[in-house]
């Protein structure tokens, strides 16, 4: 938020509907219900045994009724920068739940929630969109691609725009742009696509959209959500939000060639070679680091990473993970590496410092490898990626 304020020199503005605060008596009932549920031994036993049955529809209904689902959508949108890139200093808390799903083969569906992945081939056709509404309410639904514009910075492509929708009947609306599937180009990573449902104050005049609604011209589909809202902010208010991510797949080659009538763009990153300072002259080594660490300063970092990865794979099982994870005390057998060579028969005893079977620098490296320190920190299997929603 601090970076955003500095960039636009403006405070954040809530452009949505006023949030309905949960009544204190409902919060008290919820707390009481949680206490009683935690005391229920039968539920705990079923949960531990994996036999507990949960009604997903009821859970969703309660999530919508309590407003928790809208808080989750808002937090996810903030995390993915949806508000910042669409409304700049504006934001809103959704208050209408959008049920969006793309139809797949074998009666399967690809739903849209808040940042989940939907491949272009799955989103090739217009999705099914439903929401709860009164019959006399008027709505406007927009789908835009936030990251896909090929020629202009901070611009979007409008993939679908329907205004003057009566109730929740999409077919009753005025389609300003037909549905166009996502088309993230090769090599550009994940692109965000956001559905925004606006509540209209009444029937609006969209005659400013003089284009053919079925156009596939990217120039005509250039769109800016901030300018659109700024122009119509007195007549509509954002109320619903859902978004997904998509990246390139092979189905887009035909879409670029035969639908957009253009050559498929492909992007590649040119990574600069890491700078490795040449060793041109003798220098006194820092005595606080071992000799091999001193030499590692003049090695290609990729060679070191490859060496560490090979050692990690050596004790990694595809199903059981770290095969050395059961070792509770990795330094318990340190004395196994502290043996000495015997002097040849009839010769003087060897000096202790020079007759070690394992040199001191190698000993330090072995200890760091076993304790997963330094370069070997990446061999630790405990650092796993987690869902930000689960880590709160």
Describe this structure in words.
It is built from 11 helices and 14 strands. By secondary structure, the chain is α+β, with helices and mostly antiparallel strands. Strands 5, 7, 8, 9, 10, 11 and 12 form a 7-stranded mixed sheet that branches. Strands 4-3-6 form a 3-stranded antiparallel sheet, with no helix packed on it. Residues 383-392 have low confidence and may be disordered.
For the biggest sheet, the summary is: 7 strands, mixed
Arithmetic mean pLDDT: 87
Rg, alpha carbons: 30 Å
Query: Proportion of β residues?
Result: 15-25%
User: What is the string of helix and strand elements?
Assistant: HEHHHHHEEEEEEEEEEHEHHHEEH
Low-confidence stretches: 383-392
**Helix share, percent:** 25-40%
Number of helices: 11
Write the layout of secondary structure elements.
Elements: H1 2-8, E1 13-14, H2 24-39, H3 41-49, H4 56-66, H5 68-79, H6 82-87, E2 90-91, E3 99-103, E4 109-112, E5 114-117, E6 128-130, E7 138-145, E8 156-166, E9 174-177, E10 191-200, E11 222-223, H7 225-232, E12 236-246, H8 252-259, H9 291-296, H10 301-314, E13 316-317, E14 321-322, H11 360-371
Parallel strand pairs: 1-2, 5-12
Antiparallel strand pairs: 3-4, 3-6, 7-8, 7-10, 8-9, 8-11, 10-12, 13-14
Provide key terms for this protein:
392 residues; alpha+beta; 7-stranded mixed β-sheet; 3-stranded antiparallel β-sheet; 11 helices; 28% helix; elongated; disordered C terminus
